[in-house]
Hints:
Elements (H helix, E strand, L loop, with lengths): L1 H7 L1 H13 L8 H35 L6 H20 L10 H19 L12 H5 L7
Amino acid sequence: MMAGLYDMDVLAWSIEQAALLRERRWSALDMENLAEEIEDVGNSMRRELGSRMAVLIAHLLKWQFQPQLRSKSWLASINVQRATINRRLGKMPSLKSALTDDDWRQEVWDDALVLAIKETGLHEFPDMPIWTSAQLLDPAFLPR
Length: 144
């Protein structure tokens, strides 16, 4: 029955599951879907981090490859993304593991390239990451 509610209305299912947890009615819980939803929360946090990192990288690429177009707006976007990312990493330290995952970093870089190409029309950006995570998150770092 609960799996049916999960399939029909995940919000109603989540409210019901939260109530069952609070009531400590362990045997009534939909364990399989609960486990999946909990994993999805973590994956969602990694996706948000990746999205913010891609925007940050795209702006840094524009900063480096279009120096004649540098603006306060680009700098503001860079600073906002860094601040938000650093806050998230402070609140969820386990997210830092993504920063050292080469596959994840390459996916984020690829997403940043799509953004940078779309926004600039340029195609001469590096295919591989050229900055470390420490550089990307360093408030003082701007590529030359």
